[in-house]
Structures are given as C-alpha cells and as structure tokens.
Sequence to fold (561 residues):
Amino acid sequence: MVKHQPLQVYERQLCLSCLTGIYGCRWKRYQRSHDNTTKWELLWSLILLFTFSLLLVWFYFWWEAHNDYNEFNWFLYNRSGEWSDRTVPILATTAAGFTYITFLTILALCHIAVGQQLNLHWLHKLGVTAALLTTVIGVISVNQMWGDEWTVIPISLQATGPFLHIGALVAVTGLAWLVAGQVARSERTRFQVLVVLIYLSGLLGLYVAPLSVTSPCIMDPTHLKPRPDVIGHQGAPMLAPENTLLSFKRALLMNVTGLEADVTVSLDGVPFLMKDHSLRRTTDVQKVFPDRQMDDASFFNWTDLQSLNAGQWFLRDDPYWMVHTLSQRDVRLAANQSVCSLEQLLRLAAPHNRTVVLHLRRPPPGHPRHDSWINDTLEAVRLAGVPQSLVMWTPETRRSQVRQEAPGLIQTSLEKQPPQTLHQKGISRLLLRYNQAGPQDIREFSRSNISLTLYTVNEPWLYSVLWCSGLSSVSSEAPHVLKKVPYPIWLMSPDEYCLIWVAADLVSFAMVLGIFVLQKWRMSGMRSYNPEQIMLSAAVRRSSRDVNIMKEKLIFSGQPQ
Fold:
C-alpha cells in the first residue's frame, strides 16, 4: 500500500495549475489527470483546431484586404444608403476572436506537452462555438457580397509566400517536441507509427512547398523594369476630399503622372466630377436642398451644384482616418471645397502635362442630356484647350464616333480583351482591376504594345509585386504612400531563394531529429524510476518535472475509489 507521506513534500506546480485551471477550470491537483483524453474531448480539440485554422485564414484575408477597405465601405454604402467605416467592427471582432482561439490552442498544446488530459471547460466550448459560427457567417457573407476579393489571398501570397513558408516551418519544427513526447510516452506501437507518419508527411510537404511558390519578386535584379507610373485615383482622396481641385493638387505634389476622375453631366449640360449617383455622401445637399437629397446628382444644374460644399463631409466622416495628420491650413482648405467641373480639372492638369483618365457615367433615362452626354463631354475637353493626347477615353458607347471627332484621344478599354481585338478597335491602353491581370498577362500586353494600368493599388506590397511583374502604371488612392517606395519591398534571385530554402529545410530536419532523440532519452530515463527512487527524490527535493509527474501518478493511484 502506498503511503501518503509524499503529499507533505510535494512541490507546488503553479504553472501547471494555471494551465489546467484556465483551460478546464481544474485548479486543484486532485482534479488533474494523466489518463487518455476522452473521445468527446478529442472531438472538441478537433473543433478548436478547425476554428483556429479558419480564423487564421479569415484574419489573413482582412489583413491583406486593407488595400480595398474603401471599396468595401463604398459597396456597402450603395446597398444601405448610409456611410460608415464597416471594417472597424469586423477587424475588432476578428482580432478578438483570433486572439482568444489562439490562446486556447496554445493551452491545448501545452496540455499535450505535459501529458495532461484535455478537458475544455463548457464556457470555452460556448466561446469556440460562437467564434466558429461568427466566422462561418462572415465567410458566407463576404462570398455573396464581395466574392471577387478572395483573389487577394493568392495575389498576396506572391509577396508573403516565402516568409509564410519559413514561419510555418518554424512552427511545425517546434511541434516536434509535442509529437516526440507523445510517441515516447505511448506504449501502443500502432499509435506511435500513425503519429510519426502524419507528422513526417506534413513536414515533408512543407519541405517541398517552395516548389509551388511563385513570385515575380524572385527574379534576377538586373531584369527589373522601371518604376511603374502612379495615377491619382480621384486625386489624393486620403489627403483631401475626393474629386475636388484640392485633391488633384495634392496628387500633383506627389509627382503622379496622371489624374483619374469620375464624370457625369449636369441638368444644363456641364460635365462635373462625382462618383456617387446621389450627392448625399460627399456634399451638404441635405442642408441646402433637403427635398432633393435623394435625387440623382445629374438632375442638378451647375448653379445648384456650385452652391454645395464638397469638403466638410471629409472632415466629419474621415473615411481614411487621415484627417488628424492634416495641418490647420489644409483643414481650412478642405472645408471650403466645392464640386469640381471637368473643365477645371483639365485646365489644372494641362500645364503639368499630366494625363487625365475619364470614367463617364451616362445620365439616367428622362434626363435632357441622356443622349448628348458624349458630345457634352467632348465639348468640355475642347473648351479646356488641353491636347487630346492627354485624355484617356474609356466609354465604349459611340467609340467610333468619338474617334472620328477627336482622333487624338487615347482610346482606353475597361474590359479585358485579347491584344489582337484591342488593336482592331484602335485601343492602345487597358485599365483593369489589379486582380484581373497576372504576371503572364502583364508580359503579354507589354509585348503587344498595349499599355496596361491596374487599379486600385494602395499598399506597398501590392505595388512591389506589380513592379516586379513589369507593369507600366497603377492607379492609386494613396500616391503619398507609393511615393515612398523607391524600390520593391523585397527582391531576390532564384539562386538566393533556393539557398534559403535548402538551408531552412536542413536546419529544420536536424532540429526535428535532435528533438526526437532527446525526448526518447528523457522518457526512457523517467520510466527507469521505481517507487522507492521517487520517494527518495521527494525527500532530497529533486526538481525534475518528470519526477513530479511520476509522484503525482503514484500518489493518486493509491487513493480509494
């Protein structure tokens, strides 16, 4: 019969108590167990692992989608009619959920490392379920409303893939300690073989993963093409109200090579700059014309449009969280902006010899300019006195007529078409969203003398990837950010990448082998203890963690059932 004297000299295990207490509310020593985890708790462990993996992808998606936050908010504004930054609650809940699930996952791994039975507390089970359901609902919602944005993941992997591979290699190599401990601790050969095979299969997959990693930034640096030109999309809308003269002036200060604007035609035939169908978001129309605030912007005449303020909304809503960086002078200038006409924009761009990209929106049916909007726009270009070679014309409507009346305009398409088709239509430039053209498309259009511009490129990592791909120009809402990117964020030759890859694999393999040998030696030493040795070690206050585990097993194995 086992004596209870060791209870008096048993060393406190504060870390173990916190570990099992936080994870399963098992704070007392008698509540802990080294028995095998039940099937029910194993199921919850798998659910926790799946939730962690899903949240990891969800978190990564929103981290890389930062380039398109404004596009997401504008999309929701068109659906709801109310402007707000909807990314803030999404990011807050995602960060909180990911942190919580990651913490539980780490605790579960620690349980495995010290040989403790997994027993997730019911409150944590509710939390895991809530996190899983919330993430699944979020994924389904994004897939239905903003499905094209998922392409940001494979595109971003061109920039982050090599570094994520190294990080995954470090994590899986670290897991070797847990796997080796489980294998050495288990007495079932079939279980040992199964665990080792699963682990080594995953490790081998990581070792050869770089074979599938493709990035334009892995290239001979001597083949790097010139820095892509930057076109100011709506000017510099992060620094000033979009589509205003101040915004375009700020963009010119950032050395942009072109300006991009959204154009519609007023009731009396004046082309002016406005992205939205209504004036509610970017003007004070609710205050000046409260009865007409829901009307289409094109149903206002130019006199009424000039009476509206087009800058105060920017200071109030702060759509890019940049207002706090503005000087007092810039704040005053932004607050006094008015609706800008196309003619004013062209007169601003001409002295600087900057290209102007026009996105035209046709007035709705019933509008007096519904049929003459093309002529009204061409007339504004003529009155501005700018060279036609500075204007990029994008509408497909009556393109042949426009080519005859203004042969100098740069014919630009917004639709991806084969180079041969574009040449047949007399189109020399192509303007696409950045996810519509990969490195191969960029090279093909370049060889066919089609100048390609991709929008909207705001993040340095995306700009660097497109630069390495050989792109000639990008359209950006953040020219002040891209101005600070004089060289791709990272660029390495294939030989350098291969050397890093092989070295990382060899170091990982050596560490995994060493960990398995060390764990086998530790566990074999622990099994060599007999009860008398354990009692003796307690008397001399030996601090071995394995001895403590054996003492705990010995103590509670002698308690009456």
Residues 152-185 form the longest helix (34 residues). DSSP finds 22 helices and nine strands in the chain. The CA atoms of residues 9 and 541 lie 8 Å apart.
